[in-house]
């Protein structure tokens, strides 16, 4: 029998630790080609200028936009942001420096040209629709609340049997065809990735290990700035949890929707969150 080397064994143990938590799976790494548009060709009429509040969401309008290490084209490219990418500003206030803003993309901090950015506003009703996907689905609605906790899954359907869970997850036992764990629930509520729109089709694309770090689809926000359908997450020492925020004080009592655990199922309830949690935003 072949015995793995010490180095390979350590790598294997690290992957196992990262995969643990509420429906955790092996982490994925986004790879982007470092190329973009010529930032010098933006027109003054279309350029974003002036000061914006911290965590203002900006959207990339170019086919690809460079994220640079400083506020001019003389600085190196640290990432390439695709068309439509949502990126938050980082300063309060966040004022342009010669037409450039300091922003965050996929966990990387850098500067982007305001010539290819607009202030993003979620379409009317987007947050309400997300909460509808979360809310009780046992009386004809489409929401996941009321269904069972199902480790490694995310699927529910109105007026169907809710399922049941017994034991301690991830060695728990589930019966029935519907339910979700915490991260499978959030992915359905947020419809991430963009193909994950049908709540009655089982899908579990992310674990808390993924939601715990910024990506091209969500980013960290201050807990005091939580809005309806934002979420909170933690992943620490191989364990994690996430839940969907509806209302309340991000640092105090909140009304949330969550697949809480095997003994609880997917519920709407009031709760607080320890300092291990941080806020994340998709919309």
UniProtKB/TrEMBL annotation:
UniProt-listed SMART domains = SH3b (SM00287)
Name all SH3b domain ranges.
55-121
Q: Which PROSITE patterns match?
A: INTEIN_C_TER, PROKAR_LIPOPROTEIN, SH3B
Q: Tell me, what's a Pfam family for it?
A: SH3_3
How is this protein named in the record? Putative Membrane Spanning Protein
| Top-level taxonomy | Bacteria, Pseudomonadati, Myxococcota, Myxococcia, Myxococcales
């Amino acid at each position: 029998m072949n015995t793995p080397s010490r180095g390979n064994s350590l790598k294997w143990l690290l992957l196992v630790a990262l995969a643990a938590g509420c429906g955790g799976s092996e982490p994925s790494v986004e790879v982007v080609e470092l190329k973009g548009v010529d930032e010098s060709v933006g027109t003054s009429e279309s350029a974003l200028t002036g000061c914006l509040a911290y965590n203002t969401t900006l959207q990339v309008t170019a086919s690809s936009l460079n994220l640079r290490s400083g506020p001019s084209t003389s600085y190196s490219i640290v990432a390439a942001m695709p068309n439509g990418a949502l990126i938050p500003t980082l300063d309060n206030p966040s004022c342009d420096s010669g037409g450039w803003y300091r922003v965050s993309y996929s966990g990387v901090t850098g500067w982007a040209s305001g010539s290819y950015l607009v202030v993003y506003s979620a379409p009317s009703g987007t947050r309400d629709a997300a909460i509808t996907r979360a809310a009780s689905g046992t009386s004809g609605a489409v929401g996941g609340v009321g269904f069972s906790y199902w480790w490694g899954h995310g699927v529910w359907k109105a007026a169907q049997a809710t399922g049941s869970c017994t034991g301690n997850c991830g060695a728990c036992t589930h019966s029935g065809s519907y339910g979700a764990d915490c991260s499978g629930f959030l992915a359905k509520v947020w419809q991430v990735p963009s193909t994950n729109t049908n709540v009655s089709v089982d899908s579990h694309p992310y674990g808390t290990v993924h939601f715990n770090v910024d990506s091209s689809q969500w980013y960290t926000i201050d807990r005091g700035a939580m809005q309806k359908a934002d979420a909170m997450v933690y992943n620490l020492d191989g364990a994690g949890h996430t839940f969907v925020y509806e209302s309340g004080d991000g640092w105090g009592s909140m009304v949330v929707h969550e697949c809480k655990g095997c003994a609880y199922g997917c519920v709407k309830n009031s709760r607080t969150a320890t300092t291990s949690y941080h806020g994340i935003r998709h919309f």
